[in-house]
Amino acid sequence: MKVAVCVNHVPDTETKVKVGSDNLTIDKTGVNFMLSPYDEFGVEEGLRLRDKFKGEVIVLSLGPESHKETLRKALAMGADKAVLLRDDATRDSYGVAVGLAAELQKLAPDVILFGKQSIDYDNAQVGTIVAELLGLPSVAVVVKMDVQDGKVVCDREIEGGHEVVETKLPAVFLAQKGLNEPRYPSLKGIMAAKTKPIEEKPAAPAEPQVQTIRMRKPPGKSAGRIVGTDKSAVPELIRLLHEEAKII
Amino acid sequence: MKILAFAEQRGAKFKKSSLETVRAGRTLADQLGAEFAALVAGSGVEGPAAELATYGAEKILVVDQPDLSRHSSTAIARVIATVAAEEKFDVLLLSASQMGKDISPRVAAKLQAGLAADCTALTIENGDLIATRPVYAGKALVDVKVTTPVKVFTLRPNVFTATAGEGKAQIVKRTVPLTPEDFGTVVTEVKVASGRPDVTEADIIVSGGRGMKGPENFTLIEQLADVLGAAVGASRAVVDAGWRPHTEQVGQTGKTVSPTLYVACGISGAVQHLAGMSSSRYIVAVNKDKDAPIFQIADYGIVGDVLEVLPELTQQMKQALGK
After folding, report:
1. Number of domains in chain A
2. Does residue B296 belong to the interface with chain A, where contact is any CB pair within 8 Å?
3. Based on the domain organization, do B247 and B293 belong to the same domain?
4. Which of B 96-125 lie inside 8 A of A, CB atoms?
5. Phi, psi angles (nearest 5°) of residue B172
6. How far apart are CA B49 and CA B57, in angstroms?
7. Is residue A107 part of a domain?
8. Longest dimension (CA), chain A
9. Structural domain boundaries, residue B263
10. What is the CATH number for B216?
């Protein structure tokens, strides 16, 4: 089984976002980057599928040189190969999807995994656009997948429950938290990852269809009032919710 | 200009977010002097479709065919793209629900349209349609312009208002021929988890963190949630500790929520958590640490032991609401 996992390199969740001087992107000064958490579930699922069905896991990322750090992490977790589709420009989801789809077309994997969304721009589009461009089915927000004889039965999260979705390989799957528990790279894995080559080639992305006009901070919420210091404050809290906020 | 709002349904019932999307489409059409229609697709949906007139749809396109009795995101995407192309719609609106987020990228790709996802506002600026969308889980906002001739927007649930009013609609039936290839995925079963609303759709969320001390104390959260008809939320720490399911997680690696009221119980307010809930209209925090970051954004705070305050709050809320 050939598995491809597409990963992104994003600011870590503890980052306090500052708007950059271009007013279009964030100020990257002092920001730590990491493998996007949902993509990590994708990598783990890829490794499990490989171990079960034999084959290989190829991780791909489209972006600048710095994405190699995230590819290296996926290799340390146990991926067999890594490909950096080098691109230094700012892209929208469609642009990235076109670049990834061109490479995936050549690789022709049985299973293509993504995270359900990248935690920077939160678009949740790239994986499904890739599927559409390749003419493949896709299942988004997957919390369980069961592969048997080329047929896949997935549980996908919806509001207040789950959907059971059936599809056939080749197909694209977008991983959600809960799909698995990603492994920590072992020391052996980390050492091995240092010697595994990362293939680098120029990306062939598309021009943006969505243009950012400006980035700004959300209107700030300021501290309100402390109503009290124990349960005797409850009547006053209820009064405020009723008379001031008018929500109950 | 022509605007189309897709009103998703399950079992011939519209979600609130579908009604929000239809009303938002009507509002936008009025601002732009555009034509507006809603689209409903499924099996046995023609009758229920008429309800959308109340939300401002003067024309309702109905694709009611037996092969759509089981939900298939690939087939529905084909239906929407076909209708939009044939009727030459310029702007498409969908809800950024789990269904909308699954379908919209396909629809956009089929129409060679740019997609602005999970928008919290649509405004007209110098004649351009500008969408506002939170990024980094709400730590920043971007204002974006879709530059393709056809534009697709998904709207975040619980942000736009589904105001009902008077309205009559012309119902236009359409058929979209589908082939087996269009059914790349098929939903075979829908499992509903609990009777409580989902955090992304709830008006009120009662959420718990480490300060709850242990998973058994979440019954206190659930009791208040049930009195308020609220959803139960959780911080990443308690989800990672296995106290609560990840479906309840609020924050950057969970759900981003905008309820009317968010009650944070024993949540200190990590950066990634605040990002996911700070757009709530009112925030109540109960935490014993007066320096907890949650108090910097809370409208009302009680600095005290949550395990003591919560039962009292539930009890008095019950009386206040006459339950």
Report:
1. 1
2. yes
3. yes
4. 97-99, 101-102, 104-106, 108-110, 113-118, 125
5. -115, 120
6. 10
7. yes
8. 67
9. 204-320
10. 3.40.50.1220
Please compute, for residue B276, the number of CA atoms within 13 A of its CA located in the half-sphere on the CB side: 28
CB within 8 Å: A138 and B245: no
Whether A131 sits inside 8 A of B135 (CB atoms) is no
Q: What is the pLDDT of residues B184-193, one digit of tens each?
A: 999 999 998 7
Cβ–Cβ < 8 Å for B79, B175? no
Neighbours of B164 (CB within 10 A): 12
Q: Which chain B positions have a beta carbon within 8 Å of A27's beta carbon?
A: none
CA A172 to chain B, closest CA, distance in angstroms equals 11
Q: Answer for the pair A162, A103: CB distance below 8 angstroms, yes or no.
A: no
ipTM attached to this prediction: 0.95
Which residue in A105, A229, A65 sits closest to B285, CA to CA? A229
pLDDT tens for residues B163-210? 999 889 999 999 999 999 999 999 999 998 768 999 999 999 999 999
Closest-CA residue of chain B to A12 = B272
**Which residues in chain B have Cβ-Cβ distances shorter than 8 Å to A160?**
192-194, 196-198, 201
Structure tokens at A178: 């809960």
Of residues B143, B146, B245, nearest to A214 (C-beta)? B143
In a domain, residue B195? The reply is no
Closest residue on chain B to A170 (Cα): B184
pTM: 0.95
Write the residue in B135, B185, B187 that is nearest to A121 by C-beta: B135
Report how far residue B113's alpha carbon sits from residue B14's, in angstroms, rounded to the nearest whole number: 26
Cβ A99 vs Cβ A203: under 8 Å: yes
Q: How many CA atoms lie within 13 A of A9 on its CB side?
A: 23
Distance from CA of A39 to the nearest CA of B (A): 11
